[in-house]
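Subject: Sanity check before I submit

Could someone independently write out the structure tokens for this chain? I want to compare against mine line by line before I put it in a report. The sequence has 160 residues.
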Amino acid sequence: MTPAGGRPGGAPSSPAAAGTTKPGSPPDEPHTYQVRTEDDLLTVRHAVRAASQDLGFPLVDQTRVVTAASELARNALVHGGGGTVAVEPLHRPGGVGLRLVVSDKGPGIADLEGALTDGFTTGSGLGHGLGGAQRLMHTFDVCSSPGAGTTITAVRWRTR
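---
Independent answer below. Compare away.
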């Protein structure tokens, strides 16, 4: 995946775009990644893993948020024709978290309730992706309209 403003071929335009911060840049700056190819999915996974590590997430929570990001990014690619994933560190009194905003301009989700149900699929998968991603995150909001695309905002808070 090529970060927004990145160079072609998936190479990030700066260390910040790769999930690390360059000297003098705010450590909590959100980063947006384009999802257009299978390679972009790997870039998203690495960026989310790095962000969750930077925030001190325990390994189990890192795995949860990376798995959710991977499922949501894959859905944007397969069902939405591509899109973006924004990764944003969050801070609140007593805790830190990570917000994922996954957007596409695809056909939208016609049956959102069904799509969140295990076993529901419009493709060849097992139908656990969207509902599974929802269970892995603390908050999960879906905004989808037929013909207007889908935006999913999901947050995971560090549990220790």
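---
OP: Matches mine. For the report I'm noting this point. The chain is about 30% helix and 25% strand.
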